[in-house]
TrEMBL record:
It is an enzyme of class 3 (hydrolase). Belongs to the glucosamine/galactosamine-6-phosphate isomerase family. 6-phosphogluconolactonase subfamily. It comes from Anisodus acutangulus. Keywords: Hydrolase. Residues 15-246 form the Glucosamine/galactosamine-6-phosphate isomerase domain. The keyword Zinc does not apply. This is Probable 6-phosphogluconolactonase. The lineage of its organism: Eukaryota, Viridiplantae, Streptophyta, Embryophyta, Tracheophyta. Transmembrane segments: none annotated. It catalyses: 6-phospho-D-glucono-1,5-lactone + H2O = 6-phospho-D-gluconate + H(+). Its EC number is 3.1.1.31. Pfam families: Glucosamine_iso (PF01182). SUPFAM superfamilies: NagB/RpiA/CoA transferase-like. The keyword Hydrolase applies. GO terms for biological process: carbohydrate metabolic process; pentose-phosphate shunt.
C-alpha cells in the first residue's frame, strides 16, 4: 500500500444527461459511506460546467435522502472577485446547488473576497490547517497533506485542472496547500488554487468531462495522443488515494480508441 496510487476507473456515457444521473448516484453513495464511517463528508467543488452537471443531486430522491447537515464544502480553486460576481465559483455553486440544499452555512468555506490573491490564498490555507487541528480534516497517512473525502473536478481544453495551468509554475508547487496566481491565461487573471499535493491526497476524485472540445485532451490523459509540446498537461497528474473516476460523455470520449 504505502505510496501506491489508488485505482483509476473510466466511465463512458451516451450523453451529458446520463453523466449527470450517474454523478448524482456516485456522490450520494459516497456521502452515505463517509457519513457512516466518520460522521461527515468533505466535498471540494470546482467551477466550469461541473455545477450544472451536478443538477440531479438537488432533485428527488437525493435532495431528500442525502444528509446535507453533515456536508462540508470547499473550492479547489476560486477567482479572486467578490462572492456575488458572475465570475465567482462560489456564486456559481450557490445559485446552482447550495441554495437548493441544506448544507449548514458554517460548513461552507468560501474565500475571503476582501483579500489580495496572496492574502486570500494564505487565509484559505490557514483555515484548512484549523480544520486539521479540530479533526474535521484528517491528514493523509501517505502524503501528510489534508485528506478530503471527494473532489469533483473538471478540466480545460488545455488540460488545466483547478487553476494549475500547463505553462504556469504553480503546478509544481509541493509545499503549500493553497497558492495564488495573478496571471491566469484564462480570465479573470487573479485566482487561488489548491496544489497537487492536496488534490492528490483526496480519498476519491471525480473528473467530470463532457463535450467534444475536450476530446483531444481526454485522449492525451487516457489514450494515446501525444501531449502538446511534448509536456504532459496537468490533467495527467491527477490521482486519488482510493479511486479516481473519470465521467465522460460520448463527445468527450470520442477520440479514445476503446470504450469501457
Amino acid at each position: 500500500m504505502g505510496t501506491q496510487k489508488g485505482k483509476k476507473t473510466v466511465l463512458n456515457f451516451d450523453s451529458e444527461e446520463d453523466v449527470s444521473k450517474a454523478l448524482a448516484k456516485y456522490t450520494a453513495d459516497l456521502s452515505e459511506k463517509f457519513i457512516k464511517e466518520k460522521g461527515s463528508f468533505t466535498v471540494v467543488l470546482s467551477g466550469g460546467s461541473l455545477i450544472d452537471t451536478m443538477r440531479k443531486l438537488v432533485e428527488p430522491p437525493y435532495k431528500e435522502s442525502v444528509d446535507w447537515s453533515k456536508w462540508w464544502i470547499f473550492w479547489v480553486d476560486e477567482r479572486v472577485v467578490p462572492l456575488g460576481h458572475d465570475d465567482s465559483n462560489y456564486k456559481l455553486a450557490y445559485d446552482g446547488f447550495l441554495s437548493k440544499v441544506s448544507v449548514p452555512s458554517s460548513n461552507i468555506y468560501a474565500i475571503n473576497d476582501k483579500e489580495t490573491p496572496e492574502g486570500a490564498a494564505a487565509d484559505y490555507e490557514a483555515r484548512l490547517k484549523q480544520l486539521v487541528e479540530s479533526k474535521v480534516l484528517p491528514l493523509s497517512a501517505v502524503s501528510g497533506f489534508p485528506k478530503f473525502d471527494l473532489m469533483l473536478l473538471g478540466m480545460g481544453p488545455d488540460g488545466h485542472v483547478a487553476s494549475l495551468f500547463p505553462t504556469r509554475p504553480h503546478r509544481h508547487e509541493k509545499e503549500r496547500l493553497v497558492t495564488f496566481i495573478t496571471d491566469s491565461p484564462k480570465p479573470p487573471p487573479p485566482r487561488i488554487t489548491f496544489t497537487f499535493p492536496v488534490i492528490n491526497s483526496a480519498s476519491e476524485i471525480a473528473m467530470v468531462v463532457t463535450g467534444a472540445e475536450l476530446a483531444y485532451m481526454v485522449d492525451v490523459a487516457l489514450g494515446s495522443a501525444p501531449p502538446p509540446d511534448g509536456i504532459p498537461p496537468p490533467c495527467t497528474e491527477v490521482s486519488a488515494e482510493e479511486e479516481l473516476t473519470w465521467f465522460l460523455d460520448k463527445d468527450a470520449a470520442s477520440k479514445l480508441q476503446t470504450s469501457g
